[in-house]
Amino acid sequence: MKIVAFGASTSSKSINKQLAQYAGELATEIKTGIDLEVLDLNDYEIPLFSQDKEAELGQPEAARAFFDKLGASDAIIISFAEHNGSYSAAYKNLFDWTSRINQKLFQNKPMILLSTSPGPGGAANVLTAAIGSAPYFAGDVKASLSVPSFFENFDVEQAKLTNAALALQLKTAVQNLLA
């Protein structure tokens, strides 16, 4: 089973990438034979989407490569950063370009949608939006989890959730993805 995981952020210290990677590694501990690939959105840098840019450039190769990575997977794990209550600009831009290749960009893959932030909100607003929109883009959401106050609940050095209740919720989410 191939799992693609990524944080919907371009920060070099992305806490969402850390959370997505942790969830993916948890899958490899629960089930043998998992091939985990953690994507970095910095590898998919493209111009800001507009119909004019699309007419000028066609479909950027980076958007095609991202679409192909999703398509080659058996499951997807995304952890969303929240910027002013919404998606990060980098993720939204890549999402917009990729949806022009095929609106069903998640390609009916089972997914776990996560979010986290340093504050108590846990990026719950963007997670709610992602959960609501995923079915329109052929995403099969098996579970979701918002992790509030990241640095109080996640040990960065050990790369794991330290809050027992959240750790159990994430383990259950991963088990639902693998079922």
Describe the largest sheet. 5 strands, parallel
The termini sit apart by 12 Å
How many strands in all? 7
Radius of gyration: 16 Å
Named at the architecture level, the CATH assignment is 3-Layer(aba) Sandwich
Number of helices: 7
**CATH fourth-tier homologous superfamily:** Flavodoxin domain
Shape: globular
Supply the helix-strand structural class.
alpha/beta
Strand order, main sheet: write it out: 2-1-3-4-5
Strand content: 15-25%
**Helix residue percentage:** 40-55%
CATH-assigned fold name: Rossmann fold
Pattern of helices and strands:
EHEHHEHEHEHEEH
CATH class designation: Alpha Beta
The residue ranges in which pLDDT falls below 50 over 5 or more consecutive positions are none
How many domains is the backbone divided into?
1
| Average residue-wise pLDDT | 97
